[in-house]
Amino acid sequence: MSARYRLNEPDVSAEVFDEEVLAINLKTGHYHSLRESGVFLWQTLMQGHSLEETASLLAARFPDIAAQSRIEAENFAQQLVEAGLVVEAPDATSPSGAAPAEPVGKPYVSPLIESYTDMQELLLIDPIHEVDVYTGWPQKPAS
To answer: Which residues of the chain have pLDDT under 50?
Structure first.
């Protein structure tokens, strides 16, 4: 049986926009932009589809890359795990919906994952625990 993944909650928050997924790892302060086929792969995995099912759906959507669809799905999932965005789902539940729609005739472009650390310091501020009665919050954690 092929692996299934879930969002690494509560450490990660993610939102799908039209042609991009923004995912923030609140534990590391890194945020990630997933684009191109990464949006389709993300949505498919987050719906509960296994890697095998995701690769099949990718191959059906883009027949010209059918031979490499398994490798594309595995590499994408591995990058998500390494970034701490997803973890393997221990309970294999059935998918929660149909595969996401992809515009007809759109050519395949490998998943693009861009990671940023420029807001790390701001994202790691803990506004609940870093409060000072005289200066308010948030306070930058002591190094």
So the answer is: 1, 129
